[in-house]
Amino acid sequence: MSDLPLIQADPAVPSPGAATTTKGGRGPRLRLLSTTDRVIITLMVLVPLLLVVGLVWLPALATVALSGTDWDGIGPVSEIEWVGARNYSDVINIYPPFTPAVQNNLLWLAALFVVATPIGMFLAVLLDKEIRGSRFYQTALYLPVVLSLALIGFVWQLIYSRDQGLLNAVLGTDTDWYGDPNVNIWAVMFAAGWRHVGYIMLLYLAGLKGVDPSLREAAAVDGASETSTFFRVVFPVMRPINIIVLVVTVIESLRAFDLVWVINKGRNGLELISALVTQNVVGEASRIGFGSALATIMLIVSLVFITIYLTTVMREDRR
Fold first, then answer.
1. What is the pLDDT of residue 23?
2. At what angle do helices 184-209 and 149-160 cross, to 10 degrees?
3. What is the pTM of this model?
4. If we measure between CA atoms, which residue out of 1, 31, 32 comes closest to residue 14?
5. Are the CB atoms for 201 and 123 separated by under 8 Å?
6. For the segment 33-52, what is each residue's pLDDT rounded down to a tens digit?
7. Which of 13, 206, 251, 291 has a 20 to 30 A CA-CA distance from 225?
8. Which residues pair with 21 in a beta bridge?
9. Could you give the dihedral angle defined by the CA atoms of residues 147, 150, 153 and 158, in that order, rounded to the nearest 10 degrees?
10. Cβ atoms of 200 and 245 closer than 8 Å
11. Who wins on pLDDT, 103 or 319?
């Protein structure tokens, strides 16, 4: 045994890594943040908050407030006349483009949800099998999503052109796909669906990559086919993705604007609520209050589905 004396630690000096306690032994004391850390954290919270409030919430609240006025955008704010719900009554009862716009928006929603969404889901299932060239196909199918709807309108105009379009050249017809009010809504929805398919494909592909492989293995052991495994095992597991797809599809159908505005500014069979808002707010009519009422209707419909989405997500997080 060594005769060296034992060195006792000073109880007043905490050992490295030991938690310091407050007076009276009331638990560990948190280390205070430095001034630089406080400034950085404050800016990280304050800047996004100001952007959201300034660019989203304040304009939304102003739109709701202006929807009850008869303001034309000219003159001081103090002279704004309050008309209550008259704008909403006029929109529903004496504004002829509103009914076709609602019908076209519902038709747009049905086309995206019933046709484009299943196609996107089917392509995601194929790409999830890691077929040869899947990276190339994934990039090619997602490429339209990167393009704006305005640019897509110009691209498809080369196909739909009455005199020099590819489609009429192939079919041997002279159909005015963008000018004929009986067919232009279908032509525009096909172009929009072409873009929507790639977006839905990417969402479902991300969801499929997150499914536990043991679920499929268990279904295969039980003798389930691939189709039965997908619809009875995989698809129910992707419930959050399904909710996201539903909300995205509804919002896409409501905010559809660029494509029809590029073609004929939302007239002649291409009436949409978003186009009517633009016509009244920034168009020749300059009816700020009336256009705000139309925008508020869109906002309310969007909030219904966004609320459903947020409720579902928060419920999943609690489990």
1. 52
2. 130
3. 0.77
4. 31
5. yes
6. 788 888 899 999 999 999 99
7. 206
8. 28
9. -80
10. yes
11. 103
